[in-house]
Amino acid sequence: QVKENGRNHFRFFSPEMNQRASHILEMESALRNALHNNEFQLYYQPQIDLYSGELIGAEALIRWQHPEMGQIQPSQFIPFAEESGIIIPIGEWVLNEACIQAKKWQTQLSIPVAVNLSALQFRQENIVEIITKALKNANLEGRWLELELTESVVVQNLDAAIIYLKQLKQLGISLAMDDFGTGYSSLGYLKQFPFNTLKIDRSFIQNVTTEPNDALIAIAIISMAHSLRLNVVAEGVETESQLNFLHRQNCDLIQGYYYSKPLPADEFDAFIANVKKQ
Ligand code: C2E
Ligand code: CA
Ligand code: CA
Ligand code: CA
């Protein structure tokens, strides 16, 4: 179905766009239902100190347990959630849930929980209040929460971002720059933000032992991050040779299947208890 203006010049809709628009609407109502029916679940992936082997933190990653379709991965629905705006209530659910879990872990494990913030969430004027509320609701101190933001989230919203990040930092929350290397990748502007941690994107780690250029990029990121006093996390570490490379380069933390996939909280507890016994 093609819609044209009076002079036959412009196409406002192509059939594909129409389908896409209706798909977004369908997904939005499915996501709204999912939120209402409690179908979302958080999985947690451990972050490990490369030298002591100690558990340092956990990243919360959302899953959708669909009653008919089974488990749906975030790549299948987060983009639609962002486009439709429903990421905002979903994101609030994630924050609350992660803070409640972090409170449980505070005494047993003493680790902070990291939460991913989407661009749309971070553009809300009251984002700092929303995060403060989630902490209060869980009776959690800010130091047990970490927020992960990508470069584009911060750069899209530069002036406000600096203000929000400084306020969040004041609450004791730590801040991680996510997926580093995939966006602007300029450490110059990073200096103006109060980040504690930089996460090297999995796409570099994947080929770090086979692609000399990726190895050089990883080395450069680690050394520049350290000169800015940032902690470095390598994402997506799957093999021992990647681990050894990162160890030689003085990377700080690793997160990846080599150690563990993301796990539901109870399996995370069991996994950590097992590791400690060994
Ligand atoms: P991300 O923040 O970069 O998260 C890391 C992703 O890498 C996760 O995928 C994780 O399961 C995966 N991963 C970790 N280690 C390995 C590894 O060794 N090998 C491989 N192949 N993959 C590994 P996941 O859970 O599917 O999440 C995908 C993306 O969805 C996340 O990327 C993040 O951008 C987004 N996301 C997940 N949960 C949330 C959430 O609660 N809120 C928002 N806004 N975004 C989320
Ligand atoms: Ca992340
Ligand atoms: Ca990441
Ligand atoms: Ca990534």
Features:
278 residues, alpha/beta, eight-stranded mixed barrel, 12 helices, 49% helix, disordered N terminus, binds ligand C2E, binds calcium ion
Report on the architecture of this protein:
It comes from Iodobacter violaceini. This is EAL domain-containing protein. The protein is α/β, with parallel strands linked by helices and 278 residues long. Helix content is 49%, strand content 22%. It is built from 12 helices and 12 strands. The chain has an 8-stranded mixed beta barrel with strand order 3-4-6-7-8-9-10-11, surrounded by 4 helices. A hairpin with a 6-residue loop joins strand 1 and strand 2. It is globular and about 50 Å long. The N and C termini lie far apart (64 Å). The structure holds ligand C2E and calcium ion (3 copies). The site of one calcium ion has 4 residues, from loops.
